[in-house]
Amino acid sequence: MIVVICTGSMAHSARFYWRRLGESRRLVNCVSSGRFPFLPRTLEMKKLWELPESLQRKLVEARLCKHGTLIGEMSSPHSSIYTFDLGANASPRYVVAKGIQVEETMSDEERRKYFARALYEVNNAYAVFHHPLVHRFFDVDIILGVPFLLSRKRDATLRDVIAEGPVLLPEALSIAVQMAHSLSYCAQKGIVCHQDLKPENVFIDFINEHFSVPAEYPLACRVHLADFELANAYLVLRHPYGSRPYMAPEQYCNLHANTLPDFSRADVFAVGVILFEMLTGGVHPIGERTSLIWPRPAEGQSRKWLREDPWKQWLKSGAQTSTGDKSVDPETLLIIQDCLEVDSAMRPSKQALEVRLLERLRTVHKDTYDTLVLTLEYFDNISNESEELGWPYYAERLESLNKAFSDRDPP
């Protein structure tokens, strides 16, 4: 993000503004109402990306103060992520605000594409937000021309869980089942292909930290499928790609041809890769530890993994699993290998994959199987009830967001 240096009267105005911010609580009410009438005239007509980073942060903090104290900020290639803390007695305690990262040096066309990408993601997420296995935004906001998407902060990502070492087989199977179940639900709602399924986009809540369950409770993790920025992009945007370690062969195809390939089982391929990583503590079927080679190679690692050639070569050779690690349960390995079939027609469907994973789980750990089946039925009932009731508040907020950026076509 570009930092704009304040000089002269603008710098004086900024200092004056922040002195007032520290002195007067009434500013919170002004910002929360969506207006910034107290901004100096040199700043009040600015867009958020035209202001210094420190000023951006304070404006976001003031506007979203009802969600707690701002305790963290980080950036991704397209977003600025702000974390708020409501305190130890609140549930949920942490809220994440995802703002679209726009730089002053961008052209109007580049900004338009960034905003369109945000709308595409939030509308995709809205189509499937009723299910408890899908991570959802609970509110949207616009701060000085920038859309912000608000959601609850989860305990971890699946990447964090994998980094702790190999996941026990019953838990790995239960996580994979939840992924397959959520993908099937999304498909029923029109999201044929998530297209960027990877451990970073699978959020995890640790059940014993949110519910009073006995020590021997068989389920440890609850899955929340997240990040629908590329969902159905192959169809809507003619963009087939995802993240290379998890891309199925069909995601390398030329979508300008007359006939589109079947993408309905591309996510099944990704589930196979992720399940292998869970059982090996982060080793990709290609034989390398994923976190050391992607998305940025660790020191001493080859930069070849940044190119698509080695990944395509692995696929051309049949997407074989490495044989160096013998810790993977043989029966589960067969399921993984079926998921990694190069011919998508040979892979199980999402529903068939869920059935096979459940069958294996029942054999491995009956208590986990029984608990998971009941949990999935409970979640499905919640989803059905939620769909019937609707969520008028969020629907209105989303409609306002879409209207505000209605002139921005998809990228």
From TrEMBL:
Give GO MF terms, alphabetically. Answer: ATP binding; protein kinase activity
GO CC terms for this protein?
cytoplasm
Q: Which residues form the Protein kinase domain?
A: 25-358
* The organism of origin for this protein: Azoarcus sp. (strain BH72)
Instruction: Tell me the PANTHER family matching this sequence.
Output: AT08303P, SERINE-THREONINE PROTEIN KINASE
| InterPro entries xrefs | Kinase-like_dom_sf, Prot_kinase_dom, Ser/Thr_kinase_AS, Ser_Thr_protein_kinase
What name does the UniProt record give this protein? Answer: Probable protein kinase
Q: Transmembrane stretches, by residue range? A: none
Q: Which UniProt keywords apply?
A: Kinase, Transferase
Pfam family for this entry, one: Pkinase
Which biological processes are named by the entry's GO terms? Answer: signal transduction
